[in-house]
Design a protein that fits this description.
- This protein is α+β, with helices and mostly antiparallel strands.
- The longest helix has 14 residues.
- It has one domain.
- The chain is built from 4 helices and 5 strands; from the N terminus they run βαααββββα.
- The protein has a 5-stranded mixed sheet with strand order 1-5-4-3-2.
- It starts with 6 loop residues before the first strand and ends in a 6-residue tail after the last helix.
Length: 99
């Protein structure tokens, strides 16, 4: 799955901005918010692959259908830890440095 090909729906973006407001506050543009959502899709763990792909990243669930992240919601029951090293490596590979 190439993250640059994934589209981010307005609903998913709004949900991320509401649920991850600290992370969103560090972003200077909607492009950076979308980048973080795509990074979550790439680094997260696939928990369901049919009929939609569901990815678990930290305490978020991302629902992907037709190459579009169309839904994002919090999962308070389970937490999947993603190391800062993995995020940094992803950012470096994509020529992106985020705070």
């Amino acid at each position: 799955m190439k993250t640059k090909e994934l589209k981010v729906s307005d609903a998913a973006r709004e949900s991320y901005m509401k649920n991850c407001w600290r992370s969103t506050a560090k972003c200077e543009s909607l492009y950076e918010v979308d980048y973080k959502i795509r990074r979550a899709a790439y680094l997260g763990t696939v928990v369901q692959s049919y009929p939609e792909r569901v990815i678990h990243y930290h305490n978020l669930r991302l629902v992907i259908k037709n190459n579009s992240i169309f839904e994002l919601f919090m999962n308070g029951e389970e937490y999947i830890w993603i190391s800062e090293k993995r995020k940094y490596t992803y950012d470096k590979l994509n020529d992106k440095v985020l705070v």
